Amino acid sequence: MNPQTQEPHPALDRLAVLIPGWQPGQELVPLVADLATRGFGAIIIVNDGSDAQHAPLFAQISTLPRVHVLKHAVNLGKGRALKTGINYFLNDLPTFEGLLTADADGQHRVDDIVHVAHALLLSNGQVVLGSRTFAHDVPLRSRFGNGLTRHIFSFVTGAKLMDTQTGLRAFPRRILPELMVLDGEHYEYEMTVLAHICRTRKPLEVPIETVYIDGNRSSHFDPIWDSMRIYFVLARFYFSAILAAAIDFAGFTLAFALTGNILISVAIGRLSSLVNFVLNKKYVFHSRASVKGTLWRYYALVAAITGLSYLLIWALHRYARWNVFAAKVVVDSLLSLVSFSMQRTFVFRKAEQ
User: Fold this and answer.
1) Rounded CA separation 341/323 (Å)
2) Residues facing residue 68 across a β-bridge
3) Residue 56: in which H helix or E strand, if any?
4) pTM value?
5) What confidence tens digit (pLDDT) does each residue in 2-18 have?
6) Which helix (H) or strand (E) holds 30?
7) Torsion-angle region of residue 143: left (phi > 0), alpha (psi -120 to 50) or beta?
C-alpha cells in the first residue's frame, strides 16, 4: 500500500510505536516511513546490537520524521530491547498516552498496527493484542508452537487467547512501569508480560492478518531455546505445586514407613497444603482477597482432593497391586492439575479482587 495515499489520523499523535530490531531487513525502512505518514507521534527504533553492515539502514531510518533511534552496543535480546524502548518512552515522551510494540520483520501490516492503535484509544485503558487467526498458509512449526503454547497458557492463567505470541500489542501509559521490572531479556519476556497482565485484567483482542514471509525465515526466534525459555515462564506458575508435592511425598513416605496406613499417610502428607496456599496466594495468583475468604475454600478443596487421593491410591494398591509409592506419584500428579485449575477458578477467583 502506498503510504502517500493515507491521510494521518489526528488521534494517533498521542501514541508511539516501539520496534526492536536485530539485523533487520530492508523492509523495516518502508514500514517506519509508512507509520510516520499515518500520524503516529513517535516511532522508537531500538537497534539491538546489529553489526556494522546494518548501520546505513538505521542511519536512513533516523532521517525520517518523528523517529527516535536507540542503540545497544551488543545484542542483549528482544526483552531487553523492549525495556530500553519503554524506559525511553516513559522518560522522554511524558505527554504520550500509549505505546504500541511491533516486530521489525514485516509480519505486521501498517493497517493492522493502525487498527490496534484505534482499539487502544477506544479501550478505556485495556491492553490490546493484535491476534492472528492462523487460518491458512501458516508454517507447520508456527501453527503447532502457537497452538501448544495457547493451550498451556490457558490452563496456567485461565485466560483463553487467540494468539499468545503476537508481538503487536498496545499498552496504556499507566501499565508500562509495571512491565519495566518484570523478568526476561529475550523472547520469554513477552510471555512474562502477557501472563502478568492476565493475572488482573483481560486483554482486548482484535484480529489481524497472519503474515509469514518466506516461511518465516527472517525471524530470529530459535524454536528450541526460545521455546524452552517461554515454557519455563509458564512452569514458574506451577512451581509452588511442585514444591508442595515434594513436601507431601516426603511426609507420606515417612508416615507410611512408620504406620503402614495409607489414610494416615495421605493426611500427614497434606500438611504441605499450607505451603502451597501461602505461595499460590502471594506469588502465583497474586490474590488480594482476604485470607479468611480464601482459606475456607482452599481447605474445602484440600479435603476433597485428599479424600479422592486416598481412594485412588488404596484402589490401585489393593486391586491393581500397584506399589503404593508409584500409585501415590501417578494419582497426585493427575490431581495436582485438578487442584491448580480449581484454585485458579474457585479459591483465588478474580471476581473478588
Assistant:
1) 28
2) 44
3) helix 55-62
4) 0.73
5) 444 466 666 899 999 99
6) helix 28-37
7) alpha
